[in-house]
Protein: C-type cytochrome biogenesis protein CcsB
Amino acid sequence: MTNQSWETLSNQAVAAAGIVYFLSLLSYLVQWASLRKVPVGRKATVSVGVGGLQAAGLDTSPVAGDGSTTTNARRVEMTGRLGLILLGLACALHFVALLGRGMAADPNRVPWGNMYEFTLSGTFVVALIFVVARRRLGLDWAGPIVAAVVVTLLMVGVIWLYEPVAPLTEALNSYWLVIHVVSAVISTGGFTLGGLCSILYLVKERKGPTTSGYLSRVPEPVVLDRTAYRLHAFAFPVWTFAVLITGPIWAHQAWSSYWNWDPKEVWAFITWVVYAAYLHARATAGWRGRNAAYLALLGMATLWFNFIGINYFSTTSQHSYASGAPALTSAAPAHR
Structure:
């Protein structure tokens, strides 16, 4: 295949993935509508997905003269299963888009040379973490949220961030970049999912106990709080590795300095401090619930401002190539 063919394949795979993500979201929305008609059963579990009707907390006992409860319960299971299958298929198409993007370059390279490509990578990791960790962490309830977030960010990437495939700038042509960005992408996916759990925690706490609708199947606030903590505890050491180890090594290789007080470097460190404070407060001060959720959301705000906002509000960053703009002359490496 030619480079142009790979780029075309990538663009088509992105479009196909976006459509399938959207279909997954529609399926989940039908599930939400069905949930409004199904009372929470006596079972203790709260996730809705592929575990069966009773495992989803639905009351499937027959109702005299009326089979609507059982019918709606089965619709909930079917649409939830379909939403998950579609999300998994979209994730596979998403991977094809990333592969095609990297193969389209000459020479072949990793697919994160600009903000469009990083957005593709970051959203793929969010979807992948959900698919892989869904059963282990009981994340079935997060399916519609993940589908909505991923399809929205893909639309933003395609409409406003798209850049044609181009060779990497010299500063990016390093294997340390691969290690650095892979770590950053993985931790970004973990932090984003943890932030979504914190948002739902605040919504669930404010709403209070419910017996029907989507929120009735979302875990109790204490479970959301614990899940958010586990996701943040996973992502933080990976972010530390990316920001404080591989990033400085790559910077020294590219610019002969481990730290340049570049705006992206500073905001990456600010993000690290916020998340370090979050985990430290939970471990030592016993922070739980609302205060911890607010701190987690502050961390997610700094995280995404670092990835997107800096590219548009800073004119001095040596990371200007990340937005697709030509790199600054100072971004050229001092040595190879």
Q: What stands out?
A: Residues 42-66, 323-336 have pLDDT under 50 and may be disordered. The chain has eight helices and no strands.
